[in-house]
Design brief:
By secondary structure, the protein is of the alpha+beta class. The protein is 38% helix and 25% strand.
Length: 69
C-alpha cells in the first residue's frame, strides 16, 4: 500500500498569485493542488511523472495540440 498523497486546495484566483508555489509542490514534493472555482473542484496541478504514469495506467497516449515543426 502506498502512502497517501498530500493534497492542497486553492481557488484559481489565489493560485494566479502563487502559481510557482503550486508548480514547485508538484515538481519537488509530488504534492497535488486542486483548483477550485466558485467552490467546485475543477482541475488539478500534478507532477509530470504522475501525469505520465496516469496516462500509461489508463492506456492513453499524449498528442501535442500544436506540435512545432
Amino acid at each position: 500500500m502506498t502512502a497517501p498523497k498530500i493534497e492542497h486546495e486553492e481557488r484559481i484566483a489565489d493560485v494566479r498569485n502563487s502559481f510557482a508555489d503550486a508548480v514547485g509542490r508538484a515538481r519537488y514534493s509530488d504534492e497535488t493542488t486542486v483548483l477550485t472555482s466558485r467552490g467546485k473542484r475543477v482541475a488539478v496541478i500534478v507532477s509530470l511523472d504522475f501525469y505520465e504514469r496516469a496516462l500509461t495506467a489508463l492506456g492513453e497516449e499524449r498528442v501535442l495540440a500544436n506540435p512545432k515543426t
